Amino acid sequence: MPNETVQLAEYAAGLRYEDLPAAVVACAKDCIADTVAAAICGSALPWSRIVIDYAERTGPGGTSRIFGRASAVQAPAAALANGALAHAFELDSLTRPGAGAHPGATVLPPALAVAQQAGVDATGRALIAAFVAGNEVMIRIGRATGHTNEARGFHAPGTTGPFGAAVACGHLLGLDAAQMTNALGIAGSLAGGLLEFARGDGGMVKRLHLGRASEAGVLAASLAAAGFAGPRTVLEGEFGFLRVFCTEFDTEALIRNLGDDYVTLSTVLKRYAVHATAHAAVRAVRELQAEHGFAGDEVEAVAVTGTARMIERHAIAEPADLMLAQYSIPFCVALALFREARDPESYDDSALADPKIRALTRRVRLVPETGSGHGAMGSTVNLTLADGRRFERHVDSGMLEAGELADKFTRLTRGILGARSAALFERLQRLESETSLDWLGAPLD
Q1: Where are the domains of the chain?
Q2: C-alpha distances in Å from residue 91, one per residue of 76, 83, 87, 176, 343
């Protein structure tokens, strides 16, 4: 056995900013900026305020910042809060091909929390390197699972996230290879998160899964730095992560082309505040509407192709709350025909109660896409108007494209930051030149 856990730990502990290709640095910076925006936007939501209040109550006296509120708390509390905030409204990053990993919401919050804690002197370059190290490990672990951890009912980022979080934190704490191995070993026992929320209620807990993964990384790395040990075969062992959490797995994926291929480059950023599986269909109906000039009221029926997973989990015709509405492909498609889908403010309780949106939601049908694999996210939309006209559009991805991040950042942060939004975005674009990280999440002058 090639000791995959140890190899990953050795690689992560040795990774340096100077080794990173320019494209990887640019990708990491975009993902970091995107995650900051998602967390600031998420900080205003009622479920986020519950988590923030808890973090402030249980973690006072620290120097790590909570986004939106700008309060300073202990690093584990900040990681918990910011991880939940970043995933609070279906706006944070993921990967293509899908790996059950969220590169931003489970890696940046714990890394930043540790970077800002007392006694840590971290620069922008150190944060970028730690962020990449965490994602190089976490995304490989996600790929090794083949999403079969979700087949068992686990919410994947709650299980892969602690590993990436632990590596990022460990990198900032200067862990050596042996300590990093221990951090991974500890993180494996902190993984969790169940998908039962997708069956009808309790959707707030979905946001908590990424907060807990972030918090777990701080715990794992901090304990490892102090000499606490975890199993050296936590990933590949007989009772390790892959065999316990997954129905099938690919152990070789853990170290395939390690050091040569940067899987961080598989990161994609969301355009809409909806589940990833809805992005292609939402973009398709928006393009059709823009091209042909019809209103939402004129739409009689919509058929959307998708994978078996999309049909099983996301064909929700009567979402009971806002989280399930964002999880529902029919609802997201219907909303996009009546409101500006790129604006997070479009997704609110008034949309959930809107009789026109609800009625059209019931007329959106999901049908199987022949030959599509588990990770496929493209959709073909067939749309029928009341006057009998029919339109068809296929979209492979509805994700953000080059040059669109600034607009998304503004849309997500303007309500809280106002005119200061642009200044923060520009500073994040120059992150590698920053000699301190105390300003990130702090009140802006």
Answers
A1: 4-268, 276-395
A2: 23, 12, 6, 34, 11
Percent above pLDDT 70 for the chain: 98
Maximum pairwise Cα distance, the chain: 71
Contact 283, 271 (CB under 8 A): yes
CATH superfamily of 276-395: 2-methylcitrate dehydratase PrpD (3.30.1330.120)
Phi, psi (rounded to 5 degrees) for 88: -70, -20
Spatial distance between the Cα atoms of 11 and 65, rounded to a whole number of angstroms: 29
Strands (DSSP E) contained in 78-140 are: 94-95
Residue 94 φ then ψ, to 5°: -150, -160
Distance CA 198, CA 90 (A): 14
pLDDT at 375: 55
Which residue reads 């590698």 in tokens?
432
Q: Which of 103, 346, 79, 339 is nearest to 213 (CA)?
A: 79
Cis (ω within 30 of 0) for the bond into 97? yes
Model pTM?
Answer: 0.95
* CATH assignment, 4-268: 1.10.4100.10
For residue 363, report the phi and psi dihedrals to the nearest 5 degrees.
-105, 10
First to last CA, the chain: 55
Q: Mean pLDDT across the chain, nearest whole number?
A: 95
Cβ atoms 264, 95 nearer than 8 A: no
Which residues in the chain show pLDDT less than 70? 1, 371-376, 444-445
**Cβ atoms of residues 6 and 130 within 8 Å:** no
pLDDT number for residue 331 = 98
Q: In Å, how far are 135, 277, 284, 391 from 382, measured between CA atoms? A: 37, 17, 9, 6
